């Protein structure tokens, strides 16, 4: 089982219009609504892969209630901590030529008590008993994904990963900013970060293969077991111990790259849960990210399409530095 944790979810609405004209009234031809946020995206893609998943995090207000209802309709189990502040909403205007313009609400304020309740709830999810019952929630992996909405929640990921490490549960960190730096100190099992986030966190520039290898080594030196640095539609890089890879994704016609990193995380986890070696997990993850980018819908790539694209992913082993 996988538990995903989203501190800053988003009720994501898309309006389809002919063209966006500033100062004008627009009448949409169609509207769609989705449960957004990085952890929720991972949960959605894992569900499409047939993996048992529970989504948790913070939700509040009417927007939070709608987000939870959408997850239920998509057969994604969830157990969120309710907050006094409402869940933020995002609106994307998609023009006929495919151009998308998005607006997001400011993040909610999270109280210290709400943060503590989420940490305790996650500890219950990942707790292992000597003889678990058939209906007991036992998390094999936890995924800490996305940003922290307020200072009171900046250390939530780090506290949860400490509990996971203590209980022998694997963890993924895919975050940025204060939450990322705090959680990195607790040594999660797998760290996945994009190029921009890595450069901002460590004050370095990643230009070529050697730079990315040095970046991966910085994470390995912190005790991280699996490391991945992505770079949008370009090659990603990964490492374990003394082994480094460059992952070249298949060429596709990109429609919407939003959520592709989350689909990649889900793909890598799917491979781990099948008992695959890391190299094969990386290929499946890159294929999931590419499959996601081909469609407007986020984190709903089919198994068949990911399998097809995985055969076109090149995972190239790099020489040791």
What structural keywords apply?
321 residues, alpha/beta, 10 helices, 15 strands
Helix content: 25-40%
Shape: globular
The CATH architecture can be named as: 3-Layer(aba) Sandwich
Distance between the termini: 36 Å
CATH level 4 superfamily: Ribokinase
Textual characterization of the structure:
With 321 residues, the chain is of the alpha/beta class. The protein has one domain: UDP-N-acetylmuramoyl-L-alanine:D-glutamate ligase. Helix content is 36%, strand content 24%. It contains ten helices and 15 strands. Strands 1, 4, 5, 6, 9, 10, 11, 12, 13, 14 and 15 form an eleven-stranded mixed sheet that branches. It has a four-stranded mixed sheet with strand order 3-2-7-8. It is globular and about 60 Å long. The relative contact order is 0.13. Residues 129-137 have low confidence and may be disordered.
What is this structure's SSE topology?
Blueprint: E1 2-6, E2 10-16, E3 30-36, H1 38-48, E4 53-59, H2 61-73, E5 77-78, E6 81-82, E7 88-94, E8 100-104, H3 112-126, E9 141-145, H4 156-167, E10 170-174, H5 177-184, E11 190-194, H6 195-202, H7 209-220, E12 226-230, E13 236-240, E14 243-248, H8 260-273, H9 278-293, H10 303-310, E15 314-318
Parallel strand pairs: 1-4, 1-9, 2-7, 4-5, 4-6, 9-10, 10-11, 11-12
Antiparallel strand pairs: 2-3, 7-8, 12-13, 13-14, 14-15
Helix pairs in contact: 1-8, 3-4, 4-5, 8-9, 9-10
